[in-house]
Specification:
CATH class: Alpha Beta
Structural class: alpha/beta
CATH topology: Peroxisomal Thiolase, Chain A, domain 1
Number of domains: 1
Radius of gyration: 20 Å
Number of helices: 14
CATH architecture: 3-Layer(aba) Sandwich
Strand content: 5-15%
Shape: globular
Distance between the termini: 33 Å
Number of strands: 7
Order of helices and strands: HHHHEEHEHHEHHEHHEEHHH
Largest sheet: 5 strands, mixed
Strand order of the largest sheet: 3-7-6-4-5
Helix content: 40-55%
């Protein structure tokens, strides 16, 4: 449409003014350059970013809903095909097919229909759009949403009375490994510039302070665009209910969700069980979370499609 302004014109302008424009796809350029700025400013290393890709692929091994369920070595992540600058294919999310659904109910509805053992409460939810600071100072980190994420998280903490240390499990928008690391700082999990040290300590996985993207995140679970936000919500609900199978975060009581779209908005949400006593005293029937998806009728159809694709792979499949 000739008379409409592209919603990411300002974003691209900030990037071009700092690092120029390459023939690579725009999204990995934006987030890759944000990672490059982080390295220049704080001394973050290529390995810090690669460890995030490695971690998310490792997490997805136990997620039957994940697009990719293969574990890679750190070296494989670092030496896989380059997409832009330091970002390799195993540090970038795919564009996925997928669907997710959630039911939003009043407390009265929950009690009337005996749903207290399953009810997850939204403690706080905040949306923040592009801010003037997103385009000031020629910062790619700010341009890709750092200030939006920071402000949305601040509002959620203020509204709920919680702090980052109260959170157990997090699903955040890891479209690229660089954005996951930058978002650690925006959410207040560590001071600005210390995301690399958080990675080194292992505070983003099982045994650390938080388990971040136990689903495998967008990088490995997949990025079904319009369904991505609800997919994050579903994953966190499973953990709060104790339904996440092999990837269950032990004792998860508080969850944080972070989702972002360039051009531009961020949504941060905090969740907990609405009736924790009821949840503890009732057996909840878990969703299928074994390592197999054979229980789904649709899986038989997909297996047939997969076989036919393999038969003609040399013609149709790259």
């Amino acid at each position: 449409i000739q008379n409409k302004v592209n919603p990411i014109d300002k974003h691209v302008e900030v990037m071009v003014n700092k690092y120029g424009l390459s023939p690579s796809p725009v999204a990995p350029q934006m987030f890759g350059n944000a990672g490059k700025e982080h390295m220049e400013k704080y001394g973050t290393t290529l390995e810090h970013f690669a460890k995030i890709g490695w971690k998310n692929h490792k997490h997805s091994v136990n997620n039957p809903y994940s697009q990719f369920q293969k574990e890679y070595s750190l070296d494989e992540v670092m030496t896989s095909r380059k997409i832009f600058d330091f970002l390799t294919v195993l540090q970038c999310c795919p564009t996925s097919d997928g669907a997710a659904a959630a039911i939003l109910a009043s407390e009265a509805f929950v009690q009337k229909h005996n749903l207290k053992p399953k009810a997850v409460e939204i403690l706080a939810q905040e949306m923040v759009t592009d801010m003037p600071s997103s385009f000031e100072g020629k910062s790619i980190i700010k341009m890709v949403g750092f200030d939006m994420s920071k402000e949305a998280a601040r509002r959620c903490y203020e509204k709920s009375g919680l702090r980052p240390s109260d959170i157990d499990v997090i699903e955040l928008h890891d479209c690229f490994s660089a954005n996951e690391l930058i978002t650690y700082e925006a959410l207040g999990l560590c001071p600005e510039g210390q995301g690399g040290k958080l990675v080194e300590r292992g505070d983003n996985t099982y045994g650390g302070k938080w388990v971040i993207n136990p689903s495998g995140g967008l990088i490995s679970k997949g990025h079904p665009l319009g369904a991505t936000g609800l997919a994050q919500c579903v994953e966190l609900c499973w953990h709060l209910r104790g339904e996440a199978g092999k990837r269950q975060v032990p004792g998860a009581k508080v969850a944080l969700q972070h989702n972002i779209g360039i051009g531009g908005a961020v949504v941060v949400t905090l969740y907990k069980m609405g009736f924790p006593e009821a949840a503890r005293t009732h057996q909840i029937e878990a969703a299928p979370t074994s390592s197999s998806v054979d229980g789904f009728k649709a899986n038989l159809v997909f297996k047939d499609i997969e076989k036919k694709l393999e038969d003609v792979s040399t013609i149709y499949v790259k």
